[in-house]
Design a protein that fits this description.
By secondary structure, the protein is of the alpha+beta class. Among the domains are: 2-65, Roll (SH3 type barrels); 155-287, Nucleic acid-binding proteins (OB fold (Dihydrolipoamide Acetyltransferase, E2P)). The protein has helices at 2-24, 67-110, 114-132, 170-179, 181-188, and strands at 26-29, 35-45, 48-53, 56-61, 167-169, 192-204, 210-215, 223-229, 236-240, 245-250, 253-259, 263-274, 277-285. The protein has a five-stranded mixed beta barrel. A four-stranded antiparallel beta sheet has the order 1-2-3-4. The chain has a three-stranded antiparallel beta sheet with strand order 9-10-11, with no helix packed on it.
Amino acid sequence: MTGHRFKPVIVIAVPLLCIHSCLLAEDIVTRSGKRLKNAEIVSLEGDQIVIKYDGGREKFAATEIPDNAQKRFRDQELKRKADEVQKLKQELARREKELQQLQRDKERLRHDPEQNQVRHDAELQTLKAENARPAGEQKPPVPALAPGAPNPLRPLGELPELKADDVIDAKDIVLYYQANPAAADRRFRKKPFQIKGVVEKFEPKMFLRLYDVLLESTDKSVGIICKFAYAEKWKAVYTKERGRILVATEGQTEWKLMKAGDAVTLRARCEGLNRSDLEFSRCVLVR
């Protein structure tokens, strides 16, 4: 009795295993009789089909490949495209929510600008006064600095030559640009170095393999935008948890890149001010 009970299970399980294997790879026999072992259709290029198999990668005329193999490929591509469209719709919905939040924040700040303006004016006046001080006049003592970290209260002309390994606080660069944009451009623009700051938010670029990381600024009216390109192995980059976490996908694996509030150091090139934004290109996360 026990043997009879298990026979139906064996009969059903074996075809299911075969079906699963065929979905992953199969032998395709061309109409001219050539057998392609473990074959997988990679792409359709006009009237030709690119197939990867044990013998390598080869193009065949579409008339050489059986219709059932072509249909399976088209069905798989259709499902993949539908999945991509669904993900784009979800990303668009997230971005719309972020836009609505930004609009609410802007409206709130518009009704109470005095505090930001007072702080901004005080910082700007301090820098202007220091830069205008005669060379022989006694200066107040300058706090001790970590190696490679300039003091934003020191005139740019007194700072040592900028090197690629110097680590500079992004907020300090904002202050320099607010005090003297031309002098700041001469020191920073089109030069590579390292910047540090605190992540404020993220802006993935839809339909482009690019994303921006915005750092906290000394002044809400000046954005600090760090531009990144996808790593070649990444399929997509998007935000989660209402835009607080930035993740990338590699195959079926999801990697967390950064989250809002992280203190980060980036290797980047300063592009100077673009309207009210201080931009950095060619950004790479150091730590």
